[in-house]
Structures are given as structure tokens and as C-alpha cells.
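Internal ticket - ligand job 311, flavin mononucleotide:
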Amino acid sequence: MVVGVGSRLPFTAPWLLAPMEGVTEPCFRELVLERNPPLTLGGAFTEFARVFSHVLSRPVLRDHLGERRFPQPVGLQLMGSDVELLAQTAERALECGAPLVDLNFGCPAPGALRTCAGSAMLRDPAALEALIAAVVRASSPAPVTAKIRAGYDDDRDLEQLARAVEQGGAAMLTVHCRTRAEGYSETVHWERIARAVASVKIPICGNGGVRTHGDLERMRRETGCRFVMVGRAALGDPWIFSGHRATAAESAQFLLQYAGLLEERGFPRAGALARVKQLVHFWSAGDLVGEKRGQWLRDAQLLDRIASAVA
Ligand SMILES: Cc1cc2nc3c(=O)[nH]c(=O)nc-3n(C[C@H](O)[C@H](O)[C@H](O)COP(=O)(O)O)c2cc1C
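stdout (C-alpha cells):
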């Protein structure tokens, strides 16, 4: 099943893994894709690749994309505000094998805002539309998707932003239902996703606040969105897409394999350990961590501890 049929989207199912800087590099993505077959996880995204002062090189783009080993597409996400640089980088990304390009209009980080990129673009729907249109022209016929937050300070421009994305020619709009000002607050407003669905014809991918496998279908039912994207909940339970309840051993195996893959691909040991700890911070799979989270996060021998937890 190719869910995007008729809308040029190559996703194999309605559930998607969110782009997450510092997490969704090829090792993590591969382990998630390996555990969630194409009918359960429809696609994933790279972490954002920042386009600031020059067109990104092919090696950089290939590093983000990694090897294609799974049927699901991995969209390459770009973030920037320079129309020409973004258009040329998108063209190059497709030459390097990206099946689609996603544009980031949600990043709230000061570095992005300083260069008028990420969520800064939400303040100027006309510029956002022009930027999308240029990338769509450079990428044709490959699809270009866009990811926004519900607004910059508030959500009053949401419909206008959704229409700008559609008029720019994007094939899908992901709506992270928090505004930039709301950061990563606990409270989420799924009705904003429904508002985006009602204001445009392109498929909407809802995002924000999915915690369980059951929430995936619930978000679709409650908002009418076609796709659902999961961020942090997938860092705690990479099986969230298929709904498989991992055992403690499977859960530990994931973390150990992750550390191994990172090292194999050139991460220094300390860097790999830091990445594993980043997951442990969120980890819920297999009830492996529980009360021990604090201790585990302080432990320099964490990998031995994980191995012995399931030995
Ligand atoms: C560690 C981390 C890194 C992120 N990096 C990106 C990114 O590179 N690009 C992007 O569009 N969103 C990024 N996000 C936002 C997520 O894609 C997602 O929109 C957000 O976490 C809300 O979804 P959730 O409530 O399911 O976590 C990041 C979020 C986290 C937690």
C-alpha cells in the first residue's frame, strides 16, 4: 500500500517518524525502520540540514540520507531562509537519492531565529510561500513537504499559513500543533490540526503529543488528518508505530545495538554513550528503565548495566 497514491507521496503507511536533530541520523532511523514494517511505519525524516551560507555538499547530504535499506522513504529536511541556496540544495539532495525534501518552518532555536529560518518564517506567510514555490520548482517532479508550528506567538495565522504552504505547491503539510511560543509544553491543541485540515486540500500530517500507539489512530479520527508524525514518544518506544510491546530483552537489545552501530560508523565511545543516554531519558519500552532512570543517566558504565539487566 502506498498511502500517498494520487498525491505524489511515497509513504507506505500513515504513521511517520519525525525529524529530530541529534537523534534521527541513519543509525537510529535504521533500527526503528527495522522494527516497524512498511505497513506500520510509512516513512521517516532526517534531522534538519541547515542551509545557511552555501549549497550543501553531496557528502553532507549523503551522510544525512545514509544508505537506503528499507522500502520506506526517508525525506531530507532542509532549514534555511535563502531561496536560491535552498532550491539548489534541494536539487542536489534529490540527485543524491532523497525521495522527497521537507522544509522546516518550526525550529524555535535562537540560532534558527537569528537567521530568519525555522519558525521565524511563520511571521511572513508570503515569504514562506515563495520559498516553498522555489524549492518545488527546483525539485519537480519529486514531492516537497513542509513542516510548520501552529504559529509564532499565537495560532491566529494558522489557516493563512496552511494556504501559503498549499499555494507554494507542497505535497503535504505537517502541523506541529504547538506554537513557537509554546515550545514543547505538555498541553497540546489537536483542534489546530483539524483547522488546518479544513483550510486546505493537500494532505495534513498531524504532529504533537502522541504518546501511545492508540493515539495514532485517535489523532486521525479526531482531526481528520491523513498522516500522523511521532517525535519524542518514538524515542521512548521505537515500536510505537507497529504497537508491538517490546520485552525488556528486546528493549535492551535496541539500546546496545544503537551504541554498537554508532561506534561502528565512527562515533567516539563517549559520543555514542551520550546518544544512548539521550534515549534513556525518554525510554519506556519493555519497562527496562523505570525507577533506575536517574542512576542510569549518571552511570559511565551504562552499556554494561543495560547488558546485565537482561543477562
Ligand atoms: C530532540 C528533538 C529534536 C528535534 N529536531 C527537529 C528537527 O530537526 N526538525 C524538525 O522539524 N523538528 C524537530 N523537532 C520537533 C519534532 O519533529 C516534533 O515536531 C516535536 O517533537 C513534537 O512532536 P512530539 O510531541 O510527538 O514530540 C525536534 C524535537 C526534539 C525533541
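Auto-summary: The chain is about 40% helix and 10% strand. The chain has a mean pLDDT of 95.
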